[in-house]
Design brief:
The complex is a heterodimer of chains A (112) and B (116).
Chain A lengths: L3 E4 L2 E5 L4 E7 L4 E9 L5 E8 L4 E4 L2 E6 L4 E6 L8 E9 L5 E3 L3 E6 L1
Parallel strand pairs in A: 2-11
Antiparallel strand pairs in A: 1-3, 3-8, 4-5, 4-9, 6-7, 7-8, 9-10, 9-11
Chain B lengths: L3 E4 L2 E4 L5 E7 L5 E8 L3 E10 L2 E4 L6 E7 L2 E6 L8 E8 L11 E2 L3 E5 L1
Parallel strand pairs in B: 2-11
Antiparallel strand pairs in B: 1-3, 3-8, 4-5, 4-9, 5-6, 7-8, 9-10, 9-11
Chain lengths: 112, 116
């Protein structure tokens, strides 16, 4: 059974710092991996989608990497801003299914 | 997201009453999903649909039923609401791979349901 883990559960950093959020999964037979952002009381906003054949994806200040063989993905946020404060979730889709399996998230606070 | 809407946004209901949540999409995506989100449990799949009248159970389907009579609408029904079903419910859509194009998921804004 696929398990997705995100470390750390919470992170507080000063504005301007570069930071890395981690996501690990136990079964490497994934179809793709998606990073989401969730603001308090809101829905999920898709940030980046990485296909199983890709190593990384970039969007603005965000860069996500994928290492299928080691079961790891990282989300790199450059020059963090208070507006980046949110919970970040990673989710994997398995080869054999259209269902997403979520990690428990990392709650990020960027202090002014 | 503009292509997917959930209704109602908030609902308070009494234990034992039936409740139906609606998800509507304008993207013509084949796949639709219902998730619930709870503190300490994260997001868990309730039911999903892979086409009109085609549905399947997720990991927490007990006490829930779904229906999909049109591509654009996916309904989640709590037959007899219980306090353990107090949660935030999210609908999502996706499309299977077609050719070389692969899609991720898009989520709705959620329905906050309280069962008293």
């Amino acid at each position: 059974k696929q398990e997705v883990t995100q470390i750390p559960a919470a992170l507080s950093v000063p504005e301007g710092e570069n930071l890395v959020l981690n996501c690990s999964f136990t079964d490497s037979a994934i179809y793709n991996l998606q990073w989401f952002r969730q603001d308090p009381g809101k829905g999920l906003t898709s940030l980046l989608l990485i296909q199983s054949s890709q190593r990384e994806q970039t969007s603005g200040r965000l860069n996500a990497s994928l290492d299928k063989s080691s079961g790891r993905s990282t989300l790199y946020i450059a020059a963090s801003q208070p507006g980046d404060s949110a919970t970040y979730l990673c989710a994997v889709r398995m080869d054999s299914s259209y269902k997403l399996i979520f990690g428990s998230g990392t709650r990020l606070l960027v202090r002014p | 997201d503009a292509g997917i809407t959930q209704s109602p946004r908030h609902k308070v209901t009494e234990t034992g009453t039936p409740v139906t949540l609606r998800c509507h999409q304008t993207e013509n995506h084949r796949y639709m999903y219902w998730y619930r989100q709870d503190p300490g449990h994260g997001l868990r799949l309730i039911h999903y649909s892979y086409g009109v009248k085609d549905t399947d159970k997720g990991e927490v389907s007990d006490g829930y039923s779904v229906s999909r009579s049109k591509t654009e609408d996916f309904l989640l029904t709590l037959e007899s609401a219980t306090s353990s079903q107090t949660s935030v419910y999210f609908c999502a859509i996706s499309e299977p791979q077609t050719g070389s194009v692969r899609y991720g998921y898009t989520f709705g804004s959620g329905t906050r349901l309280t069962v008293v």
